């Protein structure tokens, strides 16, 4: 077996455990916050995560493109392990948990943000440029599977054991991830150290690089815009189920299950279909379809049809995100990936903060109106990207 193929297997295993940890951490932290304190504490945790993600992404992008990427990955993993150890200490010692939850949120988000670009550079070093879009779709299946197992497994463990056991297992998984990462970091090429480590100059250089390539800046914007659909959905759908449908939490649970099933199904089909699509600007076409399903969803009130459409929406979201992400990794040079990924993260987190604040800032009388409006915007942007005709 070639060294590159072996690196790919270790990378996929690392990615699976990473997203399993993300899904599990989300469920465990949310449960602890609500059970020990209140929903308000959980809201502050999400807000802290968004703010930390923006700030650390900026620093992480510079570190990735001007420093030793192996050290950046190790720094992120050690920070995450430290965050889990601190949280476990707070739980086992039966201390006042909110401060520990806030600290965990900041450190955990920082660990993911600081190493995001470096992890992307590993993908670029393993996968040749021509195969990155198709491989990004296949890798998304691993992400989806990891999230599903992490969220479902942690829910089961919380029900039958305790939060301390869940966090202990996450700590073990975090340690395993560190050792797995060492297997593919050995062959990761270091970039040349920059003569100038001026952050402003590095970011100016990255911005100029991004706007000089139409494919690249459309991919950056496309990833962030696609994520906004999930952010808008997470914010509005609970209220839509309660107020517009007058339904119970069972319907909400079925909708979320349908979203996951739809996402996994369409990624499997796309990953293993024999012939690639010959449609130009395929991502723009997917955006138009995604926005259209949002509009249609907001007008429907027949629950079985809503569940089916929600599954389609989840599938379109997953494949659109994977395609844009693959194009970003294809068109971005390896020495710029840190700042480009950081730009995407800042844009995504900023739009998320705005979306999460919309129900508070604006007096919304109908959730469906806002959902329809956002869907129409997605369709409009899809047409604009189609007109721009990225190659």
Automatic annotation (TrEMBL):
The chain crosses the membrane at residues 9-33, 39-63, 75-95, 101-123, 135-156, 162-180, 252-272, 306-324, 345-362, 368-388. Gene3D superfamilies: MFS general substrate transporter like domains (1.20.1250.20). One of its GO terms (cellular component) is plasma membrane. One of its GO terms (molecular function) is transmembrane transporter activity. It is a multi-pass membrane protein. Keywords: Cell membrane, Membrane, Transmembrane, Transmembrane helix. SUPFAM superfamilies: MFS general substrate transporter (SSF103473). It is found in: Cell membrane. The keyword Transit peptide does not apply. This is Major Facilitator Superfamily protein. It comes from Vreelandella subterranea.
